[in-house]
Amino acid sequence: MNNLLIPNPKEAESIHIIREVAAQFERPVLLFSGGKDSITLVRLAQKAFYPARIPFPLLHVDTGHNFPETIAFRDKLVEELGLELIVRNVQDSIDQGKVREERGRYSSRNSLQTTTLLDAIEEFKFDACIGGARRDEEKARAKERVFSVRDDFGQWDEKNQRPELFDMLNGKIHVGQNVRCFPISNWTELDVWEYIKTENIEIPSIYFAHEREVFLRDGMIWTANEHVFREDHEEVLVKMVRFRTVGDMTCTAAVFSEAVSLEDVVGEIRDSSISERGARIDDKRSEAAMEKRKKVGYF
Amino acid sequence: MSENRKLIKIATAGSVDDGKSTLIGRLLYDTKSLTTDKIEAIERSSKQRGYDYLDFSLATDGLVAEREQGITIDVAHIYFNTDKTNFIVADTPGHVEYTRNMVTGASTSQVAIILIDARKGVIEQTYRHFFIANLLRISHVVVAINKMDLVDYDEEVYLKIKADFDVLVAKSDFTEDQINFIPVSALKGENIARQSEEMPWYVGNTLLHHLEVLEPADLQESSVARFPVQYVIRPKTEAWHDFRGFSGMLYGGNLKVGDEVTLLPSMNTSTIKSIHYFDQEIQEAAPGSSIAITLDTEVDLSRGDMLVKSSSVPRSEKQLTATICQVNSKPLKVGGKYILQHGVNRVLAKVDQIESRIHTDFTGTETADQLKLNDIGRVHFRLSKPIHFDTYKENKANGSFILIEEGEYDTVSVGFIE
């Protein structure tokens, strides 16, 4: 038995937020991407409710362009922890004619996820969606609340946000509204990696250096794969790379790396001079890219 | 997350054009917290605007609308760290309408940096920012006298501003050791991370060093333990058949196994049987811990109730007086009914009387029949059920509340219990 618990302030705050979600909402769901942030959320939720099970399901909005390693990891995690997993597919939204597939050089299904997500929220009547967004990721996210109210259309009104005072969270909403909840708002990328290391949390293999067929474009390393548009002159190379974020293959760039262990990865992040979203091709489209996507209901 | 790294939470306040965003951008740059792609973005934007210097304010000004206006309009959170310390900065705007934002940012902060433009000196805005720091009982205030480069790094200017500010300090609850003055140039990086050679007359710490060595009082603050029940954990599995864990965050003081506790509102007593942190059983928990507690007797205890040591029970009353800051454009009126959220507990509240509106420049009070956005006043409430509170002075977490209006459920006020 340990004598005295001195809390890790960021972890304690996150557990507090997750318990608030479970207490204040009737049908919460955890948005699970298979990435390190959502894996961290799952660990925090385990801690919040132990020895009971996590009292809400996970929702994965699958673009069909995920790395196969991520999907395999997702299924294993769900199985081991006895979690409930709901999967909704962007392909279905495309087949139903609700969204149209992008074409060409920078085509991606990343922005199409929004429609599939909003449909799933409506289908299951979710009133709270727990997400792994962090304020340090991107400028527009720096102003996001921990509890962020969205209207029936999933829209974010940045001028009309509820102020959040002390650690009191106001999740009162009307029918049709829902709240995006961000328990690790105050964590940095390094915090997440150090936590994964301290807690010895398993993560998908693509976060570690591995050999992969890639090609170079605009100074970024792209996965060479049937889902990723590639010009004929863009030559396929085999390189040691790893990923710092796990999104779609179409919008997640790799970094050259030799980091094969968590220790290596944490060291690399600590010394790193490129931000995590710097490897997100979708953010490069314009300076205000993220803010525009948030307004229409992106995570 | 390195457990031996200290966490310091800072709120910044300044008027429009005091260079607050530049100061934060400079702190990020000097601590190497800006990544290459961010620096490139700043260089690109600065060049586009035709500046001959790096506009660090572009590192923090997030939203499109405010970039267009060139001012910050909401609270933004910014993170950086040094080897010893993790910092969270709540960047709050200084525009006259935005008192609510500073109150919001300051509510989660231990340190306030108040910026003063060396050319303008102490102005009305400075009074307001300091008033809020005082109201929220921030444990340290750093007065950063900025743009010293534009006044030839003149010590006289610094001394004059310090003297003017000391007049305010005398009117506040702060003691002198809670306030520090640092002459800086955020644009040039003087006395930010690097000791300025332009101001040899200043012998104190640089801003960054000062922030690193601070030991904000509320990091070690030890008052009395308060444990509001947030969520009851009942696994209903074979292995944990009879387990009933009362989960929540512990405030104010330690709790340990064997402590005699009183449960509110029932006033029943019990003893702590076990304390759980995930799959570990622990003997004792320090304030700020998110834990689950089991008791050695069957008790009726649910969300919103409170568990305290029997030796120090808080007040339980249906009437209270509080200083209110109005944080929404819907005014607070006599007779108005609200949902009062005190920690995780909610009751209904009615405004009995608005005693006064308080001038935020330390010049006293006036009568008022309502409190409008950004007003601060003293208000009497009547509640549908008693809440179990301390004064804000005794225990910040158990001495504050928010009011939620019943139409849109907006958070309209924050209260500090007297």
From TrEMBL, chain A:
Keywords: ATP-binding, Nucleotide-binding, Nucleotidyltransferase, Transferase. The keyword Disulfide bond does not apply. InterPro entries: PAPS_reduct_dom, Rossmann-like_a/b/a_fold, SO4_adenylTrfase_ssu, Sulfate_adenylyltrnsfr_sub2. Pfam families: PAPS_reduct. Its EC number is 2.7.7.4. The keyword Transmembrane helix does not apply. Residues 28-253 form the Phosphoadenosine phosphosulphate reductase domain. One of its GO terms (biological process) is sulfate assimilation. GO terms for molecular function: ATP binding; sulfate adenylyltransferase (ATP) activity. Belongs to the PAPS reductase family. CysD subfamily. This is Sulfate adenylyltransferase subunit 2. It comes from Algoriphagus chordae.
UniProtKB/TrEMBL annotation, chain B:
It comes from Algoriphagus chordae. The keyword ATP-binding applies. It holds the Pfam family GTP-eEF1A_C. PROSITE patterns: G_TR_1, G_TR_2. Transmembrane segments: none annotated. Keywords: ATP-binding, GTP-binding, Nucleotide-binding, Nucleotidyltransferase, Transferase. One of its GO terms (molecular function) is GTPase activity. Its EC number is 2.7.7.4. This is sulfate adenylyltransferase. CDD domains: CysN_ATPS, CysN_NodQ_II, CysN_NoDQ_III. Residues 5-220 form the Tr-type G domain. It comes from the Bacteria. GO terms for biological process: sulfur compound metabolic process.
